[in-house]
């Protein structure tokens, strides 16, 4: 069982020089950015159907070119910079948001070992990158020199930092079961059974905290336009607002992929598309599973109402956190009590 | 390329550490502190200490620096007052210099910097892992003097870094070797540290808890 799969079998050397590395990065990032663009149209069409209206249907067939039209509109809009703002941080903050939500794609495997970097501590890398993304919100609010955006940024940061605790606790339960911090190993450990089955209670906590991490609907207080002002991006307009928008939807797509790797077995599906050549279509499986999560996020947005902020924080610290810690103690206790080793001890 | 990057990150770390002290705006000062942590974590990753570098990112940048920023941003600070305070403190620079000198004398006289690592000559900065193991050995030997010596001293324990700098993240032994070292040679100190953390966690709860009065 321990040497069922050897990472060296699938090892694709990535240090072949800068040009090959850049091509590898482009191979992941260009389809990913297109995916982010179409995530917005997925959201608008699905929410349209759920609310019995058509949704965008003018630009391109069925409205598929709508996101590009939106982006073009935002790019040609006037750029307004507050006079008393800290200019450098004002422009740096959206870029921090975008760059660090894109960096999370580096260790995601699209096939056995087919990641930009298949690093041994990929999970930790993802968590670190997602925690740095918080600075985008924090600096955007402070640099704009406006009370509304500053309070919005404090609100957003407090929420993201609190729910990150729950999120990483749930992720570490998966790590305990897989016995490795490497993404490919975690996927291979799920060939017997997807981790959603043994870890279903943790999966529920994970989904709730993922919604809060992404600032999606039941917890979308960072930008509650109707009752609070637009949040940390109140003063941002035009091109740099597009950066925030892209970062948000890139976060949704990344989180969907991350969840499907952790809980739904990633690219692995029994006996479909398995061939160890360069033409590897297992990424289609990963895409299908990620689409399930994307649909779920949109579905939640069309269904639930927004929570009040104090309830959001109380829910996190007094209800979710004890549950998450209790489950994190329970999982290794069961593993030790029944003498079940982690799936691969040799890695 | 890697040696150039390491030098670049080292210089950047020193530069941003200086800016932390000299920046006039406290928020900018915390910003340079974050930059310092980023440089150090990049430096550790390039040295092959991938796990420690990523831990720096998660713990210091992801948690502690955000709390610093929160506190500094929410305080209603007047920059003029702060600058007046700072000029008072600059009078005490010689005193600070003396303290720093004493600290370094203590550090270099207590901590064994001797290294049995033949690869040390390739890169002078490789001293760090040896120092960590040296600290553990020193502390264990202090215990040993009181008759509590848990585990005998050793200078050849699991090395927590790889020799080739190209396989920064690819080494599979990184996390495991740190775990082995902590749970064997440093087990007592891990226990003491965890007790201290527990105390630090319970302390604020006790301090902030309101006694419920029954009417």
Automatic annotation (TrEMBL), chain A:
Principal location class: membrane
TM spans (from-to): 20-42, 88-108, 120-144, 165-186, 192-212, 242-269, 281-300, 312-338
A Pfam family the protein falls into: NADHdh
Entry-linked InterPro entries: NADH_UbQ_OxRdtase_su1/FPO, NADH_UbQ_OxRdtase_su1_CS
PROSITE patterns in alphabetical order: COMPLEX1_ND1_2
Catalytic activity, as annotated: a ubiquinone + NADH + 5 H(+)(in) = a ubiquinol + NAD(+) + 4 H(+)(out)
Gene Ontology CC annotation, any one: mitochondrial inner membrane
Keywords from the UniProt entry: Membrane, Mitochondrion, NAD, Oxidoreductase, Transmembrane, Transmembrane helix, Ubiquinone
Protein name according to UniProt: NADH-ubiquinone oxidoreductase chain 1
Organism (species): Malassezia sympodialis (Atopic eczema-associated yeast)
Gene name tied to this protein: nad1
UniProtKB/TrEMBL annotation, chain B:
InterPro entries attached to this UniProt entry: NADH_UbQ/plastoQ_OxRdtase_su6, Nuo/plastoQ_OxRdtase_6_NuoJ
The name this protein goes by in its record: NADH-ubiquinone oxidoreductase chain 6
UniProt EC number: 7.1.1.2
Family named by the database record: Belongs to the complex I subunit 6 family.
Membrane-traversing stretches: 6-23, 30-51, 57-80, 92-113, 188-209
Gene that encodes it: nad6
Membrane topology of the entry: Multi-pass membrane protein
Molecular function via GO: NADH dehydrogenase (ubiquinone) activity; oxidoreductase activity
């Amino acid at each position: 069982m321990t040497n069922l799969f050897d990472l060296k079998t699938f090892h694709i050397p990535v240090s072949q020089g800068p040009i090959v590395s850049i091509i590898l990065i482009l191979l992941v990032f260009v389809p990913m950015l297109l995916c982010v663009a179409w995530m917005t149209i997925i959201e608008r069409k699905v929410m349209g159907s759920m609310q019995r209206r058509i949704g965008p249907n003018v630009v391109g067939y069925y409205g598929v070119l709508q996101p590009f039209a939106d982006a073009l509109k935002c790019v040609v809009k006037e750029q307004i910079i507050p006079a008393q703002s800290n200019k450098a941080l004002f422009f740096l903050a959206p870029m921090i948001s975008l760059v660090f939500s894109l960096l999370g794609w580096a260790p995601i495997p699209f096939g056995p070992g087919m990641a930009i970097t298949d690093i041994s501590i990929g999970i930790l890398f993802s968590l670190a990158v997602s925690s740095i993304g918080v600075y985008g919100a924090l600096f955007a609010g402070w640099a704009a020199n406006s009370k509304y955006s500053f309070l919005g940024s404090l609100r957003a940061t407090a929420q993201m930092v609190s729910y990150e605790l729950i999120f990483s606790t749930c992720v570490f339960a998966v790590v305990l079961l897989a016995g490795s911090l490497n993404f490919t190993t975690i996927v291979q450990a799920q060939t017997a059974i997807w981790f959603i089955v043994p870890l279903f209670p943790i999966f529920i906590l994970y989904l709730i905290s993922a919604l809060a991490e992404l600032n999606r609907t039941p917890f979308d207080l960072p930008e509650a336009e109707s009752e609070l002002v637009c949040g940390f991006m109140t003063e941002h307009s035009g091109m740099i607002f597009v950066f925030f928008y892209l970062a948000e939807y890139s976060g949704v797509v990344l989180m969907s992929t991350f969840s499907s790797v952790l809980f739904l077995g990633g690219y692995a599906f029994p006996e479909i598309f398995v061939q160890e050549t360069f033409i590897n279509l297992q990424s289609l499986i990963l895409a299908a599973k990620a689409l399930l999560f994307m649909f779920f996020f949109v579905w939640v947005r069309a269904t639930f109402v927004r929570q009040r902020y104090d309830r959001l924080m109380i829910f996190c610290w007094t209800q979710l956190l004890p549950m998450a810690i209790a489950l994190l103690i329970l999982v290794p206790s069961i593993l030790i009590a029944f003498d079940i080793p982690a799936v691969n001890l040799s890695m | 390329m890697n040696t150039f990057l390491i030098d670049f990150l080292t210089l950047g770390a020193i530069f941003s550490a200086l800016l932390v002290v000299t920046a006039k705006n406290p928020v900018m000062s915390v910003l340079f502190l974050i930059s310092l942590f980023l440089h150090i974590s990049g430096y550790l990753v390039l040295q092959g200490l991938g796990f420690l570098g990523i831990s720096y990112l998660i713990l210091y940048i992801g948690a502690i620096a955000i709390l610093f920023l929160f506190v500094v941003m929410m305080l209603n600070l007047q920059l003029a007052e702060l600058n007046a305070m700072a000029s008072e403190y600059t009078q005490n620079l010689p005193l600070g210099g003396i303290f720093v000198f004493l600290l370094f004398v203590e550090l270099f006289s207590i901590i064994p910097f001797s290294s049995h690592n033949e690869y040390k000559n390739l890169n002078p900065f490789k001293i760090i892992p040896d120092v960590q193991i040296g600290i553990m050995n020193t502390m264990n030997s202090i215990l040993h003097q009181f008759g509590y010596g848990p585990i005998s001293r050793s200078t050849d324990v699991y090395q927590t870094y790889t020799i080739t700098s190209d396989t920064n993240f690819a080494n599979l032994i990184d996390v495991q070797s740190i775990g082995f070292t902590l749970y064997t040679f440093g087990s007592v100190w891990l226990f003491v540290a965890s007790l201290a953390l527990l105390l630090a966690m319970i302390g604020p709860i006790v301090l902030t808890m309101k006694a419920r009065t029954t009417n």
